[in-house]
Amino acid sequence: MRSVRARAALGATLVVAVALVVAGLAVLTVLRGNLTDRAGLEAEVAAREVAGQIALGVPYTDLELDDEETHPVQVTDEAGRVVAVSKDLEAVSGTGTDEVAPTSSAPARDDDDDDDDPARSEVSSGTPDFVSGTATVDGERADYRFAAVEVTTERDVTLTVHAGAPLAAEQEAVDTVRNAMLTGLPLMLLVVAVVTWMVTRRALRPVEGIRRELAAITASEDLGRRVPEPGSRDEIARLARTTNETLTVLEASVDRQRRFVADASHELRSPIASLRTQLEVGEAHPELLDVPGAVADTVRLQVLAADLLLLARLDAGERPGKAVVELGALVREEVSQRPADRIPPEVAVADRGSYEVVGSRGQLARVVGNLLDNAQRHAEGSVTVTVRPDGSEVLVEVTDDGAGVAPAEQDRIFERFVRLDDARSRDDGGAGLGLAIARDVATRHGGTLTVGTAPGGGARFTLRLPAAPVTRPGPG
Predict the structure, then answer these.
(1) Are 286 and 155 contained in the same domain?
(2) Which of 318, 350, 368 is at the close of a domain?
(3) Could you report the per-residue pLDDT of 179-222, keeping only the tens digit for each?
(4) Secondary structure (DSSP) of 212-234
(5) 75 lies in the same domain as 154
(6) What per-residue confidence (pLDDT) applies to 226?
(7) Which residue, 112, 149, 368, 442, has fewest beta-carbon neighbours within 10 Å?
(8) Which pTM was predicted?
(9) Residue 364 lies in a domain
(10) What b-and-e string marks burial along 241-253, b requiring 16 or more CB atoms within 10 Å of the CB?
(11) Is the distance from CB of 169 to CB of 35 less than 8 angstroms?
């Protein structure tokens, strides 16, 4: 079944069916047990009545068994021989013996002995034995519940009185209840299935609305649309809100990707066009070929392509490495590779603590390099790099004495292809990807990259990275 409503209705119907069947069996069992116990009590009363007559000395032939059609009676001695039976009892089973005629060798009573002590006659007061069997009375065979009561005569002879009570009423009542259950069960299950179907259909109606809207969004590719949110506070309402939040994030991501592609195409077009122009001029007039300019455009194109590839890998979810990197040594190495025509950074590395972090050395080097490029581009006379531990983190601060970053622009400068000084040439200002890459790499390494104002008025970029865990040597 592909329909949730159908599966829900079927599941609810099966659960109710199992519950009703179990409950019905329990009711029938209890009902049969109660009626059987009632028949046993009735048989016990009949057996004790006959046993009382025997205890009072009534001869076997004079026992009053007027109710033999309802309560068939069989009296046996210790040897299992029949001494008395109901008049119309033709067959019996379940009482220990199938005989229904008194045995001639059974112990006889001395009816003329009136001097015997009647106190010696005794009816057992214990719980009688109960057994189910059959009896044929006056040609009609039926099921009975027999009770066996022992009685001791004045001659110290122990007899067992088997008296039965019919189980026809019990069987009729059980059959009636069972037939009623068998008749009502399908109707009840039908009602459960219909009600479950309707309730599930009503509950899933908002889901169908969400599905239709999502299908329309997929067909139209309009990520500005949103699914309807029901006014309830249930799981479906939360699903709709989560779906709309996902659409919002997806829309922003797609817009960001489109802007990225457009900006990348624009940034790539300029150096490619410039390089092509220079090559075409050089081909036509070799003496006019600007080789340094062509090399500069090629280098710029190479750097831009590398930045775009790195951003693509980061957006694809590339995880940083697990190498242990010593930030102090990394910063010194990056500073030593700075071009001589730029403002040389001053490096200050604290003498205490560990500067090891876990991550990708290449990506972290790119972060430090981008921060140094940005600081040297905007500094007027000095650039300072400080590396120091700060609790469970390692801090790298890059400070310049330039104009700084206005508070309103301190978050915007980390966006891709953003250059605050639009009048600055592309050669000096870059493509606006360095700080975006630096923050993205820092975030993926579990750290942060922020910008503030330096004490001298310039910009201060602070990179925070989690320190590598200290590995303690094992016992020697």
Answers:
(1) no
(2) 318
(3) 988 888 889 889 988 988 888 888 888 888 888 888 988 888 88
(4) HHHHHHHHHT-TT------SS-S
(5) yes
(6) 87
(7) 112
(8) 0.51
(9) yes
(10) eebbeebeeeeee
(11) yes
